[in-house]
Amino acid sequence: MKKIALSILTALLAGALCACSGGAASSGAAASGSTSASAAQSTTSSASTSASQTADAENPFAGKTVKVGCSATFVPFESIEMAADGTKTYVGMNIDIVKAVVEKNGGTVEFQDMPFKSLIAAIQAGQIDFCSGGMAPTEERQQTLDFSEVFFYPRNAIVYRDTDSYPTLDSLQGKTVAYVFGTNYQQVAESIEGVNAVGIQGSPACIEEVKSKRADACIIDGAGAVEYLGENSGLAMSLLDKDPNDCFAIGFPKDSPYYETFNNTLKEMMENGELDSIIASHLSEEFIAD
Known about the structure:
Distance between the termini: 116 Å
Largest sheet: 5 strands, mixed
Helix content: 40-55%
């Protein structure tokens, strides 16, 4: 009987040991499965973060605020509207183009107003990331800056008092002609035989020179001239033919991280008609026709 009881007890102990062993194995398997799932989730999360970082690295504008220089006396391309509470809003064709390109790439723009002649120096000093349009990519400028695709060819205008008539540049020979200092208008004015060319800061100041009779005429952008004539009585204008050497592009410092992305997006907008829509919203057809 003792032997039988001992055998039964031995069998029971063996079964208990097997049950404990099986439970441990099951628990270990569960723990292993949980660890694997956690590792998989961690790998997925890491891959997602890595992909996000790669996307940001490929698009320098993503999540960034870029500083863009402009000369905000260049109606209707770049100007400032003041609200009653003193809030400034930058408006104009060039402003809208720059904002569209940057925002398409996940960035925002902080415009900084300065004289046109100061834009290149500000870029070189790192005070701004690039400048808005209105700058022709001349050979001299290309020595220090990289330029985007040309996106607009303006038409210049001669603005004068409506008691006079200056239909052509030649008709200004021997006259006093104002121009915006540091722009291509300087070369146009100085090309006139016998002219007294006077550099002025900003188109509004040029208009005032004519109105006050300190200048016989001024040479400014044709689209801007239309705006000024609508705001000032007693003035007239003559629209000049397009000059293929006078054009608008965006100026960047050499080796700018923003250059390639900005230029590629600008070219896409030129191809899909978005750029023409922005231009047409600010100018009449005679200024954008081929």
